[in-house]
Specification:
Elements: H1 2-16, E1 17-25, E2 32-36, E3 39-45, E4 52-60, E5 64-69, E6 72-73, E7 78-79, E8 90-91, E9 131-136, H2 138-146, E10 153-161, E11 164-175, E12 189-192, E13 204-208, H3 218-228, E14 236-243, E15 246-254, H4 261-268, E16 279-282, E17 300-302, H5 314-322, H6 328-334, H7 340-353, H8 359-362, E18 366-371, E19 377-382, H9 405-411, H10 416-421, H11 425-441, H12 447-467, H13 482-490, H14 507-522, H15 571-588
Parallel strand pairs: 1-8, 9-14
Antiparallel strand pairs: 1-4, 2-3, 2-5, 3-4, 5-6, 5-7, 9-10, 10-11, 11-12, 12-13, 13-15, 14-15, 16-17, 16-18, 18-19
Helix pairs in contact: 1-15, 7-11, 11-14
Length: 589
């Protein structure tokens, strides 16, 4: 009887087995295998410069497997998801390939989401960490790294996404902001695809090193929360980067709002008009203040491809200067020239996150785009959100974190756009409604903190790798330790090397104290449980040819976490097992 049942189990497993393609990125490995129940199958790399290994093996739904690189097996088991003909593009020794990060709610009822950019691109899917490989002339790239300079070099660039591998040649690659005195040893980077080529609606990409932020979460969190508020803020995502086989760590991939790649993706879904509008970067003093002689507009810097010079912003500033701020009709008329509603949303986020190096407090790190498809209307563009959530706060007031927005208003009269709008009772009411509604459901110690903790857990293995890398460029090194990656969620941390760094607040500490200040000021009641988007909301697209099961991510643990997107048996699979098992039992007994 016992032997018969064993034979049944083996038969059922065999009947449920199928040919599955296994795919894994294994940097530094020359030989990689997949171990399925003790059976080893070799995997191969089609390109010797890219450590991306694939191979086909027979495996049943729910089969346990692990990758073996150079004879060393992973310390944990993975579980094959039911019904899958291939795995995701996995990464060696990373237990979670595709996560289940909680989606943020949509707090603003009026135009709750920006739709002109189309569907969210897989490149910015929070649930997956893409890997990018740069392959170029070793002499050129070594010189660039060890002695940073502004030159760009042609490279071959390969993206590895959850279910896609894409290679581009003749990519112009270099350091972003090379030559600045206060650059970090871990440089920021950018690249531009060859003329006529785009990837996911973009041709220009920027990587920020995130060295100012020990958690490496803040800037992406700013982008995600702002987009949940219905803005066209830049997209962002964590990625890994390798240059000629060497790992350079984790970076925040983001749109650069000063490049036409950004409005092309964000305003036109990658299908821009033949002639795009004026695009200006806002440096220190870019306040929208009116200057009759036009010389005062030097703080605006045009993109080299802009069809208009910076004086084009003069009529907008003049119109704002002449607008009677308390007159709703005049504000509405000005709104035909400049999108004031989106601007207010950005200002709510600047206030909540303490974006001291932005428009409201410094009149810098902004920009504008003039949309020729929308009656030449101007749109405010925000950028550089790495110094947020308590990083590098210049204010000497220890209670700055608890300031009312009204204190920010009083302290910054030169921010003439937001100062003027707040003079209008209707616009002030709109600003306060957006602020209150955002804190009620999104920016609070329940919903936003929940997302931070789940995302932090997902990133930890990669952040541990990042903290182990010795960067080869000269520059500032704060020396943040791996332990401080977690410590700075809860409290401020100091550079172990005594080299500065401004992480004086914990990320969650900032969220908690700032939201509590707003809750107290406006007598807000927030949800006791995390809030998500409307049930009718569309989630980020699942990678092509795969399916994702939703569920609660695993709790933090010191032990390796099994593959989060696996381990589920489909109803069809259960039905097949039941049918085969029942038939065999009927035959045997």
């Amino acid at each position: 009887m016992r032997q018969s049942l064993t034979w049944i189990a083996l038969f059922v497993a065999s009947a449920n087995a199928a040919q599955v393609t296994f795919r894994v990125v294994a940097p530094g490995a020359s030989a990689v295998e997949v171990n399925i129940g003790g059976q080893l199958t070799p995997l191969t790399a089609a390109d010797p410069t890219i450590p991306y290994f694939t191979g086909v093996a027979e495996a049943a739904d729910g089969a346990k497997y692990k990758y073996v690189a150079g004879g060393t097996a992973e310390a944990f088991d993975r579980t094959l998801e039911a019904g899958k003909a291939s795995t995701y593009n996995e990464f060696i020794n990373r237990p979670i390939t595709y996560a289940n990060i909680p989606e943020l709610p949509w707090p603003i009822e009026n135009k709750p989401q920006w739709t002109r950019s189309g569907a969210k691109q897989p490149l910015f899917d929070t649930n997956y960490i893409p890997t990018v490989f740069i392959d170029g002339n070793p002499s050129d790239l070594n010189a660039l790294i060890t002695s940073p300079h502004k030159s760009k070099y042609p490279v071959t660039l390969t993206w590895v996404l959850a279910n896609e591998v894409r290679t581009f040649k003749n990519v112009s690659f270099g350091i972003h902001g090379a030559g600045k005195k206060k650059n970090n040893a871990k440089q920021s980077w950018n690249w531009r695809l060859a003329s006529g080529e785009t990837y996911q609606n973009r041709d220009f990409f920027k990587l920020r090193h995130m060295e100012e932020d020990p958690t490496q979460i803040r800037e992406k969190l700013w982008a995600d929360a702002s987009r949940a508020m219905g803005t066209f803020a830049n997209e962002a995502n964590m990625i890994r980067m390798f240059i000629n086989g060497d790992g350079y760590g984790t970076f925040n991939l983001l749109d650069d709002i000063t490049e036409y790649s950004y409005p092309s993706a964000m305003f036109y879904d990658g299908k821009p008009p033949a002639q795009m509008g004026a695009l200006f970067d806002g440096a220190s003093g870019a306040s929208f203040q009116y200057f009759p002689d036009t010389l005062g507009y030097y703080s605006w810097v045009k993109n080299s491809a802009s069809p208009e010079e910076i004086v084009a912003i003069g009529p907008l500033c003049e119109a704002w200067n002449k607008t009677v701020k308390t007159d709703d009709a005049q504000i509405a008329e000005f709104g035909k020239q400049f999108d004031t509603d989106m601007f207010l949303r950005f200002m709510v986020m600047e206030y909540l996150t303490g974006h001291w190096d932005g428009y409201w407090e410094m009149q810098t790190n902004d920009g504008v785009y003039r949309d020729p498809t929308d009656n030449n209307r101007w749109y405010y563009l925000g950028q550089d959100y790495d110094a947020t959530f308590g990083v590098n706060i210049p204010s000497e007031d220890p209670l700055y974190i608890e300031w009312s927005y009204k204190q920010l208003e009083t302290a910054n009269p030169n921010a003439v756009m937001i100062a003027g709008l707040l003079q209008n009772p209707t616009q002030r009411a709109t600003f306060e409604k957006y602020l209150v509604d955002t804190v009620k459901v999104l920016f609070n110690n329940v919903t936003l903190t929940n997302r931070v903790l789940k995302y932090h857990e997902f990133l930890l293995p990669d952040l541990e790798w990042d903290r182990s890398i010795t960067q080869r460029s000269p520059g500032i090194n704060f020396g943040w330790t791996f332990n401080q990656v977690t410590e700075n969620l809860w409290a401020g941390v100091s550079s172990p090397l005594g080299t500065g760094g401004g992480a004086e607040f914990g990320l969650i500490e900032w969220i908690s104290r700032k939201s509590e200040a707003v809750i107290k000021e406006f007598a807000i009641t927030i949800s006791p449980t995390p809030v998500g988007p409307p049930s009718t909301a569309t989630q980020p697209p699942v990678p092509s040819g795969t399916s994702i099961e939703t569920g609660t991510p695993p709790a933090p643990t010191d032990k390796p976490v099994p593959e989060s997107a696996a381990g589920h048996v489909s109803p069809k699979g259960l039905a097949t097992v039941a049918l085969v098992g029942a038939s065999l039992v009927a035959l045997l007994f």
